[in-house]
Amino acid sequence: MRAKEFFLFILHKKFISNRYNEQKHSEKFADGACIMGEERKEKENFLESEKEREDESLEKGLDKAGQGESQEEGLEESSYKFLKETIKAKPIDKRKLAKSLGKLIGAGAIFGLTAACVFAALAPGMAKKALDRQNGKKVQFSSQEEEQEEEQEEETQDAPQEETQPSTTVIQELTPEDYENLYADIFSTAQEAEKAMVTVIGSQNNQDWFQTPYETQLSGLLVAQSENGQEYYVLTEYRIVENVDRIQVVFHDGTMTDARFQKADSNTGFAILKIPMSEVSAETKADISIAPLGDSYNVKQGEPVLAIGSPMGYSDSVGYGIVTSTTNKVSKVDSEYGLITTDITGSSQGSGVIMNLDGEIIGIIAQSFANEDTKSLITGISISQCKELIQILSGNQGIIYMGITGENITSEISEKKGIPVGVFVEQVEVDSPAMQVGIQNGDVIVEINGETVETVKGYQQQLKACKAGETIEVKAMRQGTEGYVEVSFDVTLKAK
User: Facing residues of 270 across strands?
Assistant: First the structure.
């Protein structure tokens, strides 16, 4: 009987514990959250009350154990009756449950939205940093750079997409051998061009104390040969052949021959010499060449060039450099010439030519046209503006002459200064055709033979179309007391 009673006691206790757990579980599920302190207190109170009831029942059962079957039946009935008791569940507070669920849902939504925004904001940067870390680079962009980058990306997205091949830049470090080969190629080009160079020697019969004739020398250039193949023409400077008794030319191979003066130009200071081909040996003819004249209109600033001849003041010298300017001009009588300036160091008395890396002559060295501050830098006249002059001098033709030195009056200058557009007369040559008809300094030439003249170059082209002895009509604007008025002149041109 004691084993049975003990078993019923254990079964009863387990049943009570399960009911209590079910009740608390339902309450916890309904409320969404429970206070641990209250649960612990309620559980302790409940267990104490049940323990007291169990102890009382156990004591009564033990007292009746010796009194027979009737008492046992009464105990069993009392125990079974206790098992039939139920514990009422705490009613669910629906309002509290809905409020708790709403708070949970709201908090979850806010958290999710915040996390999404933060991730969206940091994702590009995190991805870029990860990529830079992978590539071994640390790159920081300013806010302005990021905006520019976004704008570029938007433009790229809006533009039509084309398949392009990735471009690669290969930087090759030059070795001393590479530099040596480079300069060797340049020098080879210079040597080929030097076949057209000559040394011009002008000597006088007067002798010094040592019985040596006075002589000077400059560089010259083989520019052409006569149509009949009987003469070579050499371009040089007039100062080397002025007031001399003998002119000699030294060719590339070292042979020397006499030359004769042909014609000179006072504006440029250039002169043409002629050499009978019959006085040149076959070996020398095979060694020399006519200079290739290039196009100076295509010369650009920064272009590498060479100066050959006598740029440093002595023969057979070579200088390397770049073109520093092609926009400078110099006005001479009835003409205008463009200048090519370089950074090649030379002598104020230097002579020779400027050539490109293709071996073409692009300028004739003329240090007299250099600015006072740049006399030590090589300056030359554009060869394209000298070709016609070379042809005229080689053919011993006269140069059309009116006798004014002019300056361009552009529309900008006209608006600022109130001077008419045309050729402003800076100087009139003494006894020139222009002076003989009354053209004055300050006049602005606007027409020649009914053709509008706006620049010195246009004026020069108009004169080239005329002949010596021809009379042309020149219109100019002259400033008076009431402003500029038109004046006309009939000018009879000369040749010089």
Answer: 237
Residue 402: which residues within 8 A CB-CB, separation 6 or more? 334, 432, 433, 434, 463, 491, 493, 494
Residue 57 sits at the vertex; the CA angle it makes with 52 and 63, to the nearest 5 degrees, is 130
Rounded CA-CA distance 136/139 in Å is 10
Helix (H) or strand (E) holding 379: strand 377-382
CATH architecture of 400-495: Roll (2.30)
- Contact (CB, 8 A) for 306 and 343: no
d(C-alpha 293, C-alpha 306), whole Å: 14
CATH topology identical between 191-287 and 296-388? yes
Helix (H) or strand (E) holding 341: strand 335-345
d(CA 423, CA 454): 6
Q: Are 442 and 472 in contact (CB under 8 A)?
A: no
Q: Which strand (E) or helix (H) includes residue 338? A: strand 335-345
CA 124 to chain centre: 31
12-15, long-range: CB < 8 A, 24+ apart: 12/54, 12/79, 12/82, 12/83, 13/54, 15/83
Residue with tokens 């009509």: 473
- Structure token pair of residue 317: 């010298």
Please provide residue 170's backbone torsions phi and psi, each rounded to the nearest 5 degrees: -105, 120
pTM, two decimal places = 0.63
CATH 3.30.60.50 assigned to domain 191-287? The reply is no
Residue 189 token pair: 């080009």
Residues in the chain: 496
In this structure, what are the phi and psi dihedrals at residue 168, rounded to the nearest 5 degrees?
-125, 140
- pLDDT per position as a tens digit, 418-474: 999 999 999 999 999 999 999 999 999 999 999 999 999 999 999 989 999 999 999
User: What is the DSSP track for 211-235?
Assistant: S-EEEEEEEEEEEEE-TTS-EEEEE
Q: Are the C-beta atoms of 234 and 216 separated by less than 8 Å?
A: no
- CA 22 from centroid of its chain's CA atoms: 83
Distance CA 479, CA 420 (A): 10
Break the chain into its structural domains and give their ranges. 2-92, 191-287, 296-388, 400-495
| Superfamily designation of domain 296-388 | Trypsin-like serine proteases (2.40.10.10)
Euclidean distance between CA atoms 406 and 286, whole angstroms:
46
CA dihedral 181→187→191→192, nearest 10 degrees, is: 70
3-state secondary structure (DSSP) of residue 469: coil
In this predicted model, what pLDDT tens digit does every residue of 343-398 receive, in sequence order? Answer: 999 998 899 999 999 999 999 999 989 888 888 999 999 999 899 999 999 999 99
Residues 6+ apart with CB under 8 A from 440: 425, 428, 478
